[in-house]
Design goal:
The protein has about 240 residues and is mainly α. The protein folds into 2 domains: about 50 residues; about 140 residues, Ferritin, core subunit, four-helix bundle (Ferritin, Up-down Bundle). It is about 65% helix and about 0% strand. The protein is built from 8 helices and no strands.
């Protein structure tokens, strides 16, 4: 719930800024306020239970320092400088989100009824674990701790809990959000190797998303979103 509230804050914030009609803007503002409360209450509960995972800490900044070498940004080869705060934050949060994704796909793969869907979830597990290893490696390079995974929280149940369609839809949503968060991580990192890593991983999960879309289309599960008018089709008189 805490992780999903963070997603909601991002998406509802974007919806508020893009809405023009006052009633729509007010609706999303209300959604945003409710999500803020959900984030606060879930964080407070995690803290009270001793379950809140804190991000790695860095020394307090005592004075302003200025970059003196181009290697601060372009050190693609050789020894890397320590991570800056924005890089740590994005690596840590993407690590947590991927941990949640891996645990979710583990559970989904256990209860899936469709063989093709099950294989899709297993492929996602492989990709997610690889990304986790890379994120942990970047944190450990700067002698920073990485949070534990949530794999142990997945039960041994194999009962048919959710429909394959619902699980595919939820997984597709997680993939789409990962692409956005990876883009943020790349844009906020001045260290050359990290944007390169995010871009490579983003391409990998986009190809994975295409596999998921093909499965959903094949089974008639993918709803078509509203589209712009096809003017060429209208001119040819082929519209329905």
């Amino acid at each position: 719930m805490n992780q999903m509230s963070k997603v909601g804050l991002t998406l509802y914030g974007a919806a508020v800024s893009s809405a023009a009609r006052n009633d729509i803007k007010d609706y999303f503002i209300n959604c945003l306020e409710e999500t803020i409360e959900l984030n606060k209450s879930s964080t407070d509960l995690l803290l009270s239970k001793g379950l809140f995972v804190r991000a790695p800490s860095i020394p307090y900044l005592e004075e302003v320092e200025f970059v003196k070498k181009q290697g601060f940004m372009l050190d693609v080869f050789g020894e890397k400088r320590p991570l800056v705060a924005s890089e740590i934050d994005n690596l840590f949060n993407n690590l947590q989100r991927n941990s949640l994704g891996v645990a979710t796909l583990q559970g989904f793969s256990q209860v899936s009824q469709n063989k093709e869907v099950k294989q899709f979830f297993l492929k996602g597990l492989e990709i997610g674990n690889k990304h986790l290893k890379l994120f942990r490696g970047k944190l450990e390079e700067s002698k920073l701790p990485a949070p534990m995974s949530w794999d142990a929280e997945v039960t041994t149940s194999t009962s048919h809990t959710f429909s394959d369609r619902l699980m595919m839809y939820f997984t597709s949503g997680l993939i789409a959000m990962s692409v956005g968060y990876y883009g943020t991580g790349a844009s906020q990192s001045p260290r050359g190797d990290i944007p390169s890593m995010y871009n490579r991983l983003s391409l990998e999960i986009q190809l994975y998303a295409e596999d998921g879309a093909n499965i959903m289309i094949k089974n008639g599960w993918l709803e078509q979103p509203p589209m712009a008018a096809d003017r060429d089709e209208l001119i040819r008189g082929e519209s329905k």
